[in-house]
Fold:
Amino acid sequence: MDSLCKTRKDECFLEQVCHGKAEFPLRFYREDVWEFDLHRIDWHWHPEVEFVYAEKGSITCFVGTEQFILSQGCGLFVNSGVLHRYEATESVCVPNIVFSPELLGTKTGRIYQKYFAPVIESAVSFIRFSPSVEWQREILQRLLHIFRLTEKGNSEMQVVSHLLELWQRLFIHSETHREHMSGDKGRRAQLQVMMQFIHANYNRQITLKEIAGCVHISESSALLLFRQSIHLSPVAYLIQYRLKRAADLLANTNKTVTNVAYETGFSDAGYFCRTFRKYYRQTAMEYRKSQIE
Structure:
């Protein structure tokens, strides 16, 4: 198994990538989700907004509290601060841009306050674009043109012009979403705090009661929120996170498999080995060897 791309993020899921430069905070990417570790761009968020286009193939998207397939030819807007993850079952081509809205207007200015803040500060997690809907098709066309301009380089003014046109259409047609999604942002914050709690305490025995208690909700509410949002129970997510931390230790240290198991919260080395093999489809030692080669 070759070494694959990994999603760089901190313990709070904040992506550790600089998207553009301070003087022009926009960056274009042409990515293949299949080339990432476990064929997924894992959970992360960023203060910038993101526009994605499924150029070749389809990807599974987990955004906020929703899961859906982004089919070839369709696009996606992911709002600032929203947890999201992408998965692929085959090689795909997914060009995208990530940029700060301050590229188009300062936070204290009228343009930002009137046209950007109502979307960015709303509970809208995402908006999908289909070529079968006229206004969405117009956004997709603008987006593809922006991709071509950014790849060509030295086209900052044209990029900004097209972004403003794109955002105008997004702002007008997102009003319905903004009016009917007022409760989602609080749920998203609760989920993120619980995930952070798991990250901070994965190496000890923690219970569902503790996970739910960190945001003062019931165990059944925590279970429902996890399942609706990331389609895993809190305990299943805890086990997956332990396995990822174990994989890091196997790849970057000489610690024995037993020690790795205990240090990542597994009380039984045999159970760890079975679970690791099921998740990574290779034994712990095979994984270590693949990372060295």
The chain has two domains: 26-179, 232-292. The mean pLDDT is 90.
